[in-house]
Design brief:
The complex is a heterodimer. Chain A is built from no helices and eleven strands. Chain A is mainly beta. Helices cover 0% and strands 54% of the residues of chain B. In chain B, strands 2, 4, 5, 6, 9, 10 and 11 form a seven-stranded mixed sheet that branches. Chain B has a four-stranded antiparallel sheet with strand order 1-3-8-7, with no helix packed on it. Chain B starts with a strand and ends with a strand. The chains are: A mainly beta, B mainly beta. Chain A binds chain B through residues 32, 34, 36, 38, 41-46, 49, 51, 87, 89, 93, 97-102, 104-105, and chain B through 4, 31, 33, 35, 40-45, 48, 50, 55, 57, 90, 94, 96, 100-108.
């Protein structure tokens, strides 16, 4: 049973374009939704996070959009750069559990 | 000044051996975790540990056991290693009382069982 579904599995975007990664969750007890960025050989690094009491959060070129009724959230990377090429994971936490439930990841490639 | 550190970075061992991975955090966090990342890069929680309260993911074999000598350390012991244990293991930490409870990950330990 996968509680957080992430798509697409891989994504190629031209430099300067918008990268969009989507996630859907099932557990309505989730109350914290972070996105992590992982480069090869490194640990996941927290990028941006949101709680369900807001519908959007923006930090620089990264924006999370959150739709509580649809149980969906997405990451938008504006003006995508080759340095953004990495694997991105959405995650969720809540319901009394401390651990994060991760999506399966999106391998993003930004072509120069 | 590394926030969450793990040793070793690489661990190659034979099936049936017992091994340990060490984790330390200097962030003053009160909760620590172990995650497993398989060959398809799927990340899955194994344990969370807070103030002597251990929460175990029910899918984790009892050959795996976390041990915390103090709040800054959570080591992972693995007995009778199997081929399927080959993966990258990540330690993470967080402060439970923070609003977002952000989790910070270590650099990972790549375990290869031959």
């Amino acid at each position: 049973q996968q509680q957080v579904k992430q798509s697409p599995q891989s994504l190629i975007v031209q430099k300067g374009g918008i990268s969009i990664i989507n996630c859907a969750y099932e557990n309505t007890a989730f109350d914290y939704f972070p996105w992590y960025q992982q480069f090869p050989g490194k640990g996941p690094a927290l990028l941006i996070a949101i709680r369900p009491d807001v519908s959007e959060k923006k930090e620089g070129r990264f924006t999370i959009s959150f739709n509580k009724s649809a149980k969906q959230f997405s990451l938008h990377i504006m003006d995508s750069q080759p340095g953004d090429s990495a694997t991105y994971f959405c995650a969720a936490k809540g319901g009394g559990a401390d651990g994060l439930t991760f999506g399966k990841g999106t391998h993003l490639i930004i072509q120069p | 000044d590394t926030a969450v550190s793990q040793t070793p970075k690489y661990l190659v061992t034979q099936m049936g051996n017992d091994k340990s991975i060490k984790c330390e955090q200097n962030l003053g966090h009160d909760t620590m975790y172990w995650y497993k990342q398989d060959s398809k890069k799927f990340l899955k929680i194994m344990f969370s540990y807070n103030n002597k309260e251990l929460i175990i993911n029910e899918t984790v074999p009892n050959r795996f056991s976390p041990k915390s000598p103090d709040k800054a350390h959570l080591n992972l012991h693995i007995n009778s290693l199997e081929l399927g244990d080959s993966a990258v293991y990540f330690c993470a930490s967080s402060k439970r009382t923070s609003i977002y409870n952000e989790q910070f990950f270590g650099p990972g330990t790549r375990l290869t069982v031959l």
